[in-house]
Amino acid sequence: MDFGFERLLDRTGFRILRALQENARLSFSELGRRVALSSPAVAERVRKMEEVGIIAGYHARVDPEKVGLPIMAFILLRTRTEKYPGVISLVRSVPEILECHHVSGSESFIVRVVASSIPHLENLIERFSPFGETSTLIVLSSPVVKQVLDLGEKYE
């Protein structure tokens, strides 16, 4: 069965995406019940969404604090373009780095890290020093952490 990209992102497709974001462990049978499709039809839709990259993966969400990494911070790095490959190599090799974003504005990169202690965080920051000037923001709390991409009411 050939699904066009537009067909994958119709009202039913967005309902499938929302349901899987809320619980990626749903059976195709349960997912089908939620979106009014048969199990084979919903399985085919999900397979096609995976094939074209709409669904990029399934992950277990781990609480960093519960595994001994209670400090979250953002390291802002200002660097020159010729240093980018070294920065990217570093961020790919450090497990405490959760995200790295190349950004516009006065900074070059924003890096989200977790650490077990302030000395551990200091060590992470120091690893960026050869690449340029850093500034660090320690997260005090996170009042909103979205786990589901809200696709809007127009798709409900």
Structural class: alpha+beta
Strand content: 15-25%
Q: What integer is the average pLDDT?
A: 92
Overall number of domains = 2
In DSSP terms, counting alpha (H) and pi (I) runs of 4 or more, how many helices? 6
CATH topology of the largest domain: Alpha-Beta Plaits
Q: Percentage of helical residues?
A: 25-40%
Over all CA atoms, what is the radius of gyration?
Answer: 20 Å
For the largest beta-sheet, the strand count, sense and barrel status come to: 4 strands, antiparallel
CATH top level of the largest domain is Alpha Beta
CATH homologous superfamily of the largest domain - what is it? Lrp/AsnC effector binding domain/regulation of amino acid metabolism (RAM) domain
Outline type: elongated
Order of strands, main sheet, comes to 2-3-1-4
Count of individual beta strands: 4
Helix/strand order, N-terminal first: HHHHEHEEHE
Distance between the termini: 25 Å
CATH architecture of the largest domain: 2-Layer Sandwich
Structure, explained:
The chain has 156 residues and is of the alpha+beta class. It has two domains: 5-51, Orthogonal Bundle (Arc Repressor Mutant, subunit A), CATH 1.10.10; 64-138, Alpha-Beta Plaits (2-Layer Sandwich), CATH 3.30.70. It has six helices and four strands, in the order ααααβαββαβ. Strands 2-3-1-4 form a four-stranded antiparallel beta sheet. α3 crosses α4 (39-51). The longest helix has 13 residues, at 39-51. The protein is elongated, with a radius of gyration of 20 Å. The two termini are 25 Å apart.
